[in-house]
Specification:
0% strand; elongated; binds iron/sulfur cluster
Length: 205
């Protein structure tokens, strides 16, 4: 594991959060919008949306119809609008207008699962967590850092395998490697991790 993390450190020296935001609530919205959508697309949509409404009160005032106009190009806009509206209402009613800072409380918000809650924790509050998206699921299991079929199992195994102080950085590095060489159809023959990756070695035989 140490060798794998060392190589990832060389490949992605200072990985930064790909979604643009300036408050925890903005990050929560951006993360909901990023489901089944690229971060680039979300980052194109959010400046205008946040200019119009970047607090729970303003989102509610904006209303579903206008919200959908802003987020339409991210896809699945009806369910995303429902989640965003539901989050705005719940944050005002249950959490005194503030985005909660624990995994358990965040997951009480409509449409917010473990991955979204973990993303908000690490990037908005700097609280260690290990969000597992499809890239992390794929790459961590190929590399043998986890041996799991589901995101939740992978999350649990990665948090046990990797020291807590490295979770945020390692999460981003696995995401970026999954978007680069270790795509669903991986480029193992040019991957610097090949000597430490049994899946890659099976593939290049
Ligand atoms: Fe992914 Fe192949 Fe690299 Fe292993 S060797 S991490 S499977 S690209």
């Amino acid at each position: 594991m140490r060798k794998i993390l060392d190589i990832l450190n060389k490949l992605f020296l200072n990985p930064v959060a790909p979604l643009h935001f300036s408050t925890p609530f903005e990050l929560l919205i951006a993360t909901i919008l990023s489901a089944q959508c690229t971060d680039e697309r979300v980052n194109k949509v959010t400046p205008a949306l946040f200019e119009a409404a970047n607090t729970p009160e303003k989102i509610i005032k904006l209303g579903d119809k206008k919200l959908i106009e802003y987020i339409r190009s991210t896809g699945f806009y009806n369910s995303k609008a429902k989640s965003i509206m539901g989050c705005a209402e719940a944050i005002l009613e249950i959490f005194d207008g503030k985005v909660p800072e624990t995994l358990e409380e965040l997951q009480k918000l409509p449409g917010v699962g473990r991955k979204t809650a973990s993303v908000v924790l690490i990037h908005a509050f700097g609280i260690p967590a290990f969000p597992v998206d499809r890239h992390v699921l794929r790459v961590a299991n190929r590399l043998g850092l986890a041996h799991a079929k589901t995101p939740d199992e992978t999350d649990e195994q990665l948090r046990k395998a990797i020291p807590e102080k490295l979770w945020i950085r390692s999460h981003l590095q696995l995401v970026f490697h999954g978007r680069g060489l270790c795509r669903p159809k991986p480029k193992c023959e040019i991957c610097p991790l090949l000597p430490h990756c049994s899946e890659g070695q099976k593939r290049v035989k």
